[in-house]
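Example A, followed by Example B.
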Amino acid sequence: MLKHIKNENVLVTGGMGFIGTAVVKFLSKDNIVTIADRLDFGKSPDIEIDNNNIVLFETDLAKKSDIFNMIKDGRFNSIIHLAALTHI
């Protein structure tokens, strides 16, 4: 069960996946959510990227990108890691 958090900056890796979209929808009601996703299966129609409460950062976590600096700089209060390879 997700701990209810409010007014935080949350990073959700794999936020456009099946479970990720449910987590993003839940958390974005009371928080700023940044999604880090490769978009292998495209953008979820259930998530409205508004760049206020929900921000999309298209990236491959296997490669160094700006998201690593954002984590290092402490931009996020919480990180929920849901990114994974599917159909292996």
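Example B, a separate protein, is given below in the same form.
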Amino acid sequence: MRITSGSLKGRRIPFDNRKFNDADVTPSKIKEAVFSMLGEDLAGKRFLDLFAGSGQVGLEALSRGAALVVLSDRDAKRARFIGELVRQWDVAERALVLHMPAAQCLRFLEHREISFDIVFLDPPYVKEGDDTSLYRDTLAALAKHRLLAEVATVIIQHYAKNVLPEAAGGLALVKTRKYGTSALSVYGTRHG
């Protein structure tokens, strides 16, 4: 897995799934789709990768110039791995790596009064059934904790057969794109 664009382009992320409790890693095709939607240049943007896993999505945002990237994962080994990579790549001044469950992370960020232009959510998901409460609840929590900028985009990676809500937490579903068994649903802030 490599960084595909920006100042860190070509750098390899040496994440070995077997050493990290078999974390689901965002496939390259889906990561490319995410950044195709967001664009090449994220200068000045604040980016939250709430279920960071290998860190590759947040690291890609850093490479594309995001002003601040918060990468959080509840797994201590994964968070430590991401933190070490951020230091090695000399981007620590624009990155905040946290080892917290999602709900605790959102409360922590609210107390720091940080809001985000872009949020990427790729929680561990079961590739069956149709329970979308985790997504709805997380969208609502982002709004409740005032973590979204006035104009914000939230991208959720999920099982393709899940049908996510049309609206939640002040956000409206803009589009859903399917990629095999996975999908990306994009939400935007609603006005008026």
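On Example B: The two ends are 42 Å apart (CA to CA).
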